[in-house]
Write a structure and sequence with these properties.
- Belongs to the plant LTP family.
- This is Non-specific lipid-transfer protein.
- Keywords: Lipid-binding, Signal, Transport.
- It comes from Camelina sativa.
- The longest helix has 17 residues, at 2-18.
- It is globular and about 35 Å long.
- It is mainly alpha-helical and 117 residues long.
- The protein is built from six helices and no strands.
- Helix 2 (29-36) runs antiparallel to helix 4.
Amino acid sequence: MMNILKSLAIISVLGIFFIPRYSESAISCSVVIQDLQPCVSYLTSGSGKPPDTCCKGVKSLAAATTTSADKKAACQCIKSVANSVTVKTELAQALASNCGASLPVDASPTVDCTTVG
């Protein structure tokens, strides 16, 4: 009986280390805003290529949105902020590609977040 209990204890401890952890939490809106904040003036009144600080944030956000939940959460946040700020559509649509990154959505108030992920 003691050997069975020892075996179960060892299996339980090993299970803690080898069972993959899945996180249901998605990226927070504050992280999305922090990453894209350097892009606001560019998106509202800029032209040409985005500033380096903006592209750094875009790339950071792209790296942070790896799961479907992250992409949907980032989309909802971007959409919400874009509704309160008037951005130049052409700059918003080309932001990620102009920074050499890939984002799940454009910085647009009309993006359909149900299709993201």
